[in-house]
Automatic annotation (TrEMBL):
It comes from the Bacteria. Residues 4-246 form the ABC transporter domain. CDD domains: ABC_FeS_Assembly. GO terms for molecular function: ATP binding; ATP hydrolysis activity. PANTHER family: ABC TRANSPORTER I FAMILY MEMBER 6, CHLOROPLASTIC (PTHR43204). The keyword Nucleotide-binding applies. This is ABC transporter, ATP-binding protein. It comes from Ligilactobacillus salivarius GJ-24. InterPro entries: ABC_transporter-like_ATP-bd (IPR003439), FeS-cluster_ATPase_SufC (IPR010230), P-loop_NTPase (IPR027417). Keywords: ATP-binding, Nucleotide-binding. The keyword Cell membrane does not apply. Belongs to the ABC transporter superfamily. Ycf16 family.
Length: 259
């Protein structure tokens, strides 16, 4: 079992404090969801965990299996088992999907033990079939000319191929129609098990109809203010965030449409 822990995390972006003492602990075998209004720090948390240098940690720590990772670069965190499916995946001309994924898999293996070619092809074919992706997608340049939905499926394809210990999915449901949402959810659910954990960041409960989380956390004003089970997400969908804010006695202004 692997453990990812965020301890009293304070983060600034361009001199403005966004995260104000986030505490979160999750293990493989668990699916955690973070919900919250716009501008509360959800994407800041995901980017900070992955090591984006634009986000400055002013206090606190991030531990992976008890080891601090806050001084490690992004590539080293990825080798240790972290994966981030970005809200806005980048296009990388000249590098095919297959080349990128194979390199990422081998980066986590001993240098003298790359994945055998036939094993890679078999795993890739199975993954593409799961996600209703054509074989030609593997030969296209990374995200170049992809629709929004194709980019999101591509992120899940990478996740399934690389097999990280922890996958952070930052608004993976953004812009997806219901069919694409079901396909993406199928990929995540197929990964569920003792060797995989996921932190899902979303605004809407509908994704959690298909990927049922073990824990739901609510973020407001840079902090996790409430934790519950799947029923908490259903409640937020019905009542919005303002009612919960008032119940908790929080003196903050919400900019989310549900407030």
């Amino acid at each position: 079992m692997s453990v990812l822990e965020v301890k009293d995390l304070h983060v600034t972006v361009e001199g403005k404090e966004i995260l104000k003492g986030v505490n979160l602990k999750m293990s493989t075998g668990e699916i955690h969801a973070i919900m919250g209004p716009n501008g509360t720090g959800k994407s800041t948390l995901s980017s900070t965990i992955m090591g984006d240098p634009a986000y400055k940690i002013t206090k606190g720590d991030i531990l992976l299996n008890g080891k601090s990772i806050i001084d490690l670069p992004v590539d080293e965190r990825a080798r240790m088992g972290l994966f981030l499916a970005m809200q806005y995946p980048q296009e990388i001309p000249g590098v095919t999907n297959a080349e990128f994924v194979k390199s990422a898999i081998n980066a986590r293996r001993p240098k003298d033990d790359p994945i055998p070619l036939m094993d890679f092809i078999k795993r890739l074919d199975e993954t593409l079939e799961t996600l209703d992706m054509s074989e030609e997608m593997a030969d296209r340049y990374l995200n170049e000319g992809f629709s929004g939905g194709e980019k999101k499926r591509n992120e899940i394809m990478q996740m399934m191929m690389i097999r990280p210990e922890f996958a952070i999915l930052d608004e993976i449901d953004s812009g997806l129609d219901i069919d694409a949402l079901k396909v993406v959810s199928r990929g995540v659910n197929q990964m569920r098990g003792d060797n995989f954990g996921s932190l899902i960041i979303t605004h809407y409960q509908r994704l959690l109809n298909y990927i049922v989380p073990d824990y739901v956390h609510v973020m407001m004003d840079g902090q996790l203010v409430k934790t519950g089970g799947p029923d908490l997400a259903i409640r937020l969908e019905k009542e919005g965030y303002a009612k919960l804010r008032d119940e908790l006695g929080l003196d903050i202004k919400l900019v989310d449409e549900n407030a």
